[in-house]
Design a protein that fits this description.
The complex is a heterodimer of chains A (290) and B (305).
Chain A lengths: L5 H29 L16 H7 L2 H33 L2 H16 L2 H11 L5 H8 L13 H29 L3 H9 L4 H12 L1 H16 L3 H6 L11 H11 L3 H32 L1
Helix pairs in contact in A: 2-13, 3-7, 3-10, 4-7, 7-10, 10-13, 12-13
Chain B lengths: L33 H31 L3 H6 L11 H9 L2 H32 L3 H12 L5 H14 L6 H24 L5 H8 L4 H12 L1 H17 L2 H6 L8 H8 L7 H31 L5
Chain lengths: 290, 305
């Protein structure tokens, strides 16, 4: 009825578009422009072409951070969704404990990344909770300086991420499970398909959309990771947990290399867009096939 | 965390708990078949796995109630005495009272703005099928995958030029802009399912567009709003970067910024660290207890075909 009145409808849209354009779209384009200048955040800047990007290509810190960011994302996406799926399929088969356990698993997602980093920084400490636990159960040989060793630091940080969001993956898979057509599942049960067969040929294809959502969500989330490496290791030891977000933050707000930081932010955007749209397209294709 | 909404199916059952459907049980019921043994074993494994996930929490709560000396003696030992002193110390150390009020104010104002602007925009986007409407919708959806880091530097300059640095208004606008894409997605897909008869009846009765919207449409959006807001308030409450960059004034800082500024986890005792962490999440747990259903629905919305 009202939607035929153009002026009225434009008025409905205007406030949202104004806020969104001013505070997101404009800074986005401004950022891309700034990455081609030598701006230090002040009023005066000169156009310098691709100088910042050339400097980025020669900077070993940047290639390392890009690699850490991608590796971190892959580890988190695979482990978090694997565990989430495992929990969801077990919970689905146990209606009596389903709701309670799902809520319990969701509790870590409620806390802020900063608080999770606080808790785990003590658990990972040399004399902290995890090593004390290993000692307690007679596995003292496995004790480790989790965050102080370059070879384990990034995986330790990823562990915190996985701990926080596995319940979230599980909730999404479980919702998908609960919306499956009962007839199909019953038909499979009647045909005597059990356990693994039923999962592989009936449930797994039906879970395809949930998998797409989960993978995309956790991928974008883990590429943007900031608080965990910031608080747990601050990029250390020896830069082993430097991520793109940390470099962006350090350059823009800590080092007077403003335009360089902005160029790094553009690199982060490109990484997120390329990886998430590529995975998304692949998973969509797969959805159509299964 | 934003979602890949550009490609997901609109949530059809937003705000409603998923239907009670159970996996078909095997029709055998004899005791102690291998299958039943396996199921029992599975349940045990499942419970153990869940316990592992909760263990860090339990440990945090227990440790925060012990004295520092007691913890240093044996981190996993049986507590000899309980004390609330750690909490009172952490409370004053991170200026918990002031910072909680600040965070509540920012979160509340942002939620109101996001709801009103998002719902208003969702109405024409859902009702108009013309090309430009789809284009605007896509532009909003694009925003769901833009990391805040990408815009943080130019945003800082913009805020400086608008004299909005160090103001609540500035932070509220940023959160509103960041979360509008998600709100627009939610409201548009929800309003699409609302039949138009009601609006037409209202129009025949001489009700204006705005009034129709606020009297007829907005109340219908209650379930989707509660789902959206539980999710968004969680994001805003827990966020560190935006207030860290845009609120320098100690009197305006949020809980997270204060916790980050005053507490270095590598130098303080867990008995200082843990109470601070618990205080930071306490209000959320209270909310979660009340809105458990909406939260779970909100988190899994969009995943259900």
């Amino acid at each position: 009825m009202f939607h035929r009145r153009r002026a009225t409808m434009a008025a409905f849209l205007l406030p949202a578009i104004a806020v969104y354009a001013l505070f997101i779209l404009y800074p986005l384009f401004k950022g891309v422009y700034l990455s081609f200048t030598d701006s230090v955040g002040g009023p005066i800047s000169h156009f310098v072409g691709t100088d910042q990007y050339k400097a980025m290509a020669d900077d070993p810190q940047v290639s390392a951070a890009l690699w850490h960011t991608v590796l971190y994302a892959v580890v988190v996406v695979v482990v978090q969704n694997g565990l989430g799926l495992l929990f969801a399929s077990m919970l689905f088969r146990r209606p009596r404990v389903r709701k309670a356990l799902n809520v319990v698993l969701l509790t870590p997602t409620l806390i802020s990344p900063l608080m999770a980093a606080f808790i785990w920084s003590y658990l990972f400490a040399p004399n902290g909770g995890l090593n004390a636990l290993l000692d307690g159960v007679g596995l003292g040989a496995l004790k480790h300086v989790w965050l102080g060793d370059p070879s384990t630091a990034l995986y330790s940080v990823a562990t915190v991420n996985i701990w926080m969001f596995t319940g979230y993956s599980c909730a999404i898979f479980l919702a998908s499970y609960l919306s499956m057509p009962t007839e199909l599942l019953e038909a499979a049960a009647l045909d005597g398909a059990s356990g693994w067969r039923r999962f592989r040929s009936v449930e797994w294809p039906l879970l395809a959309p949930a998998l797409t959502v989960n993978v995309t969500l956790s991928l974008i989330g883990s590429l943007k990771v900031f608080e965990f490496p910031l608080v747990l290791t601050n990029g250390g030891p020896a830069g082993a947990t430097d991520t793109l977000t940390l470099l962006v933050y350090r350059n823009i707000f800590g080092g007077g290399k403003f335009a360089y930081g902005v160029a790094l932010a553009v690199l982060l955007l490109v990484t997120v867009v390329v990886l998430s749209s590529a995975t998304n397209s692949l998973l969509r294709l797969r959805e159509r096939r299964v | 965390m934003t979602s890949p909404l550009s490609t997901t199916v609109p949530p059809t059952e937003v705000g409603r708990p998923a239907g009670k459907r159970d996996a078909p049980r095997p029709r055998t019921a004899e005791p102690w078949t291998p299958r039943r043994l396996a199921a029992g074993l599975g349940t045990t494994v499942l419970c153990l796995g869940t316990v592992l996930f909760v263990l860090p929490f339990v440990f945090t709560i227990v440790t925060s109630l012990r004295t520092a000396a007691d913890v240093a003696r044996s981190p996993l030992g049986i507590p000899h005495s309980f004390t609330l002193k750690n909490f009172t110390q952490a409370f004053s150390q991170i200026h918990y009272g002031t910072s909680t009020l600040n965070t509540l104010l920012i979160t509340g104002l942002s939620c109101v703005l996001i709801t009103v602007l998002g719902a208003l925009a969702g109405y024409p986007l859902a009702r108009i099928t013309a090309g430009w409407s789809t284009a605007v919708y896509r532009l909003f959806i694009l925003g769901t995958s833009i990391p805040v880091f990408v815009v943080v530097a130019p945003l800082y300059l913009l805020m400086r030029d608008l004299n909005l640095l160090d103001t609540y208004a500035g932070v509220v606008f940023i959160y509103t802009a960041l979360n509008l894409p998600l709100a627009v997605f939610f409201y548009t897909s929800f309003i699409r399912q609302v039949p138009t008869d009601l609006e037409e009846a209202a129009a025949l009765d001489g009700c204006g567009a705005l009034r129709t919207f606020f009297v007829i449409i907005l109340p219908l959006l209650r379930p989707v709003t509660s789902t959206l807001l539980t999710f968004i308030s969680l994001q805003i409450w827990n966020d560190l970067l935006v207030p860290l960059v845009f609120l320098q004034d100690p009197g305006k800082r949020t809980v997270m910024v204060n916790a980050y500024s005053f507490i270095d986890p590598h130098t303080v005792q867990p008995t200082t660290l843990f109470p601070a962490a618990l205080l930071g999440v306490l209000p959320l747990f209270v909310i979660f207890i009340f809105f458990q259903r909406q939260m779970v629905a909100g988190m899994s919305a969009g995943a259900v075909k």
